[in-house]
Specification:
alpha+beta, Immunoglobulin-like, 2 helices, 25% helix, 36% strand, elongated, binds copper (II) ion
């Protein structure tokens, strides 16, 4: 009586559920593939820098250090530091130490904003790159102004292109 009818009415509904489940399984599989692909192609990531991005320091340090989540490869890894006057102040090859990569700066490091542009070869061989800046409030290294850095805080390139002792008063 009503039993077969209800059984019959259940059958189609169960059958219509199947494709939904199938789609759900497909969705999970696809999601898994996408997630897996993302993980597989993930490169090293920058964890921290010294000086920190956007930070202000008393003087520009003798070296900048970038710390990644994994050790980088020396081949192709490069850190270029541009000084306040636009000249390159980084010198020598990068120094790899575990997951950190350092680059030395020249002795004379004036006050101002420094830009660190880096390109590192990931553990998987793929290059990653980025840049950050920091600002030094004072000059480091041999003082080109005869040890009188005070009045040169507002030193502008157009005024200080030549010998600063002469330009400044
Ligand atoms: Cu990669």
């Amino acid at each position: 009586m009503p039993r077969p009818a209800s059984a019959a009415s259940h059958a189609p509904s169960r059958r219509s559920l199947a494709p939904g489940r199938f789609l759900a399984v497909v969705a999970v599989v696809v999601l898994g593939l996408v997630t897996g692909a993302t993980t597989a192609s993930a490169h090293d990531t920058l964890a921290s820098t010294d000086p920190a991005d956007g930070s202000t320091v008393a003087v520009a340090p003798a070296a900048v250090t970038l710390v990644f989540n994994e050790p980088a490869q020396a081949l192709g890894s490069q850190i270029r530091v541009i000084g306040p006057d636009g000249s390159v102040v980084s010198t020598g090859d990068v120094v790899l130490n575990g997951a950190s990569v350092s680059e030395h700066l020249v002795d004379s490091r004036p006050a101002g904003t420094y830009t660190v542009a880096w390109r590192i070869t990931s553990t998987d061989g793929h290059p990653i790159s980025g840049s950050f800046t920091f600002t030094a409030t004072g000059a480091a290294g041999p003082a080109p102004h005869g040890g009188d850095p005070g009045p040169h805080g507002d030193c502008r390139r157009e005024r200080c292109g030549g010998p600063h002792h002469v330009v400044h008063r």
